[in-house]
Design a protein that fits this description.
The protein is of the alpha+beta class. It is built from three helices and six strands. Strand 5 and strand 6 form a beta hairpin. The longest helix has 12 residues, at about 35-45. The protein is globular, with a radius of gyration of 13 Å.
């Protein structure tokens, strides 16, 4: 999961795709995307909006990893978010993210 956030921060589509199951589903307040390529591309597009992506805490429970992180915008505002990822065979199979899209 740490590499997922690092690759997202770098905007590294190729690395992100290697960390995701081919059939990953990622859902959140703004969209639901299916497949490693589509999700990696959506993360890279979103990364342009952020000055930084900072992970504050991470915890695991079996196949699930919970992350609490900050999306630091170029405007200086911060959006706090959490995601729950299901990991199997060293790839992320499902992602649920939550944040307030009106927060800023």
């Amino acid at each position: 999961m740490q590499e997922y956030f690092a690759a997202w921060r770098r905007g590294d589509t190729t690395r992100l795709e290697t960390l995701l199951d081919d059939h990953v589903t990622a859902s959140g307040p703004l969209a639901t995307v299916h497949g490693a390529h589509e999700h990696a591309a959506s993360l890279v597009r979103s990364a342009r909006m952020f000055r930084d992506i900072a992970v504050d805490q991470m915890a695991s429970d079996g196949a699930y990893v919970l992350s609490w992180f900050r999306l630091e915008l170029h405007s200086g505002s911060t959006v706090r978010a959490a995601n729950r990822c299901e990991v199997a065979r060293d790839v992320i199979r499902a992602i649920e993210v939550t944040f307030d899209p009106q927060q800023e």
